[in-house]
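STRUCTURE:
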């Protein structure tokens, strides 16, 4: 899930929700209370996969004598019905069997957030993209900066803050008057 969507948000997506490489989230978590509609970008690596899927979807609909179906993810047995949560779990189990890789659907959202953070986006962006209500949620349950990244950022910030280059006299250290911080 290179979009950060929750499984429910994806399985209830409608065909008309796709537009200009974005997907409108029609059924967000907290729908009817705090949930907000949003659009998520379709990343470039996912676009050929989505294009191939849409072509296969169109062919499957034609086999059923249909020009259109509401669900984005169409079921072969009933193209106008949305996947249930249980059917999605069965599809996931088939993918696990075929690939030999076991995974949790929820872990895909964590991977999405961690990929964003590791690629240099801010923690705030990595929190807003999967639509968390708080940066604390993102930090506690989804993604954290690695110690190497933290150390690199600290060194870069300190290098930028300190005038001079290594091996030269630093004007803050070579001052003759005393700087106490008190006026």
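SEQUENCE:
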């Amino acid at each position: 899930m290179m979009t950060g969507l929750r499984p429910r948000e994806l399985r209830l997506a409608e065909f008309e929700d796709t537009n200009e490489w974005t997907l409108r989230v029609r059924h967000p978590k907290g729908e009817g209370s705090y949930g907000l509609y949003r659009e998520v970008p379709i990343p470039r690596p996912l676009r050929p996969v989505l294009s191939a899927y849409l072509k296969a979807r169109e062919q499957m609909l034609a086999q059923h004598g249909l020009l259109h179906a509401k669900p984005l993810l169409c079921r072969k047995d009933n193209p106008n019905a949305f996947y249930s949560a249980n059917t999605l779990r069965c599809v996931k189990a088939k993918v696990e069997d075929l690939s030999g890789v076991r995974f949790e659907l929820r872990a895909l959202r964590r991977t999405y957030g961690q990929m964003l953070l590791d690629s240099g986006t801010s923690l705030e962006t990595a929190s807003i993209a999967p639509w968390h209500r708080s940066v604390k949620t993102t930090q506690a349950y989804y993604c954290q900066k690695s110690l190497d990244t933290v150390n690199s950022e600290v060194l870069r910030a300190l290098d930028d803050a300190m005038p001079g280059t290594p091996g030269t006299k630093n004007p803050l250290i070579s001052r003759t008057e005393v700087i106490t911080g008190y006026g």
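REMARK: The CA atoms of residues 25 and 146 lie 31 Å apart.
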